[in-house]
Design a protein that fits this description.
single chain; alpha+beta; two-stranded antiparallel sheet; 7 helices
């Protein structure tokens, strides 16, 4: 097929009758424009690029700063009435958060039954790389308080601005924007949905 050609196919149309979608036997012409977009990564990748380079393309400084700010805000709010624990709390910083995310990625690759097992003294179980980056207590502390938005600003249910994804909306929008700016998908995509039993409660459809 030449670049300036278009493909014409015949497609079935649907019609809605009393909220029920039915197939029609009437065919209609459907014109599909030729796919001409340049595919792949849209940023210059230096020869010495490592995993940190690609991580920074998606998790830019604005995202990291947002999570650091909201995590510290939430931790201090939750510990406000526990003076002893508040005095022991150490504010999260950007480098520590990046290390935390890196550990989460490693844990996804080197999967163990329990988080505590990464700090096991058994050389056949423990992960020395994880152990050298952060203590178990600090990792669990960050996991307990990590936050992506200011909960006090969340609109209540029923409000015109209510958003069920408010707690992660900012970071999701940021990451999506970054991904779209650095990579162009191909014409043919496969969208898969994992068929995993879910017994929790979800108030909206994915």
């Amino acid at each position: 097929m030449k670049a300036n050609q278009t493909t014409k196919v015949r497609a079935l149309t649907t019609r809605n009758m009393k909220h029920e979608t039915l197939w029609s036997q009437d065919f209609e012409e459907l014109e599909i424009n030729h796919f001409t977009t340049t595919l792949g990564i849209k940023v210059a990748v230096p020869n010495e690029a490592n995993e940190r380079f690609f991580f920074n393309l998606i998790f830019d400084p604005s995202i990291i700063d947002l999570v650091v700010q909201e995590t510290n805000r939430y931790a201090r709010k939750k510990l406000a009435n526990e003076r002893t624990r508040l005095d022991k709390w150490k504010d999260l910083i950007a480098q520590e958060l990046i290390a935390y995310f890196g550990m989460c990625i490693i844990m996804g690759i080197n999967n163990l039954p329990r988080i505590s097992m990464y700090w096991s003294s058994d050389s056949f179980i423990g992960n020395s790389g994880v152990q050298n980056v952060m203590t178990k207590n600090r990792f669990e502390e960050i996991s307990q308080y990590i936050h992506f938005s200011d909960s006090s600003q969340e609109p209540p249910p029923g409000d015109d601005n209510y958003d069920r994804l408010f707690k992660v909306r900012l970071i999701l929008a940021n990451i999506l924007e970054n991904i779209q700016s650095i990579y162009e998908l191909s014409k043919n995509l496969s969208v898969d949905k994992g068929m995993i039993a879910f017994k929790g409660r979800l108030s909206f459809r994915q």
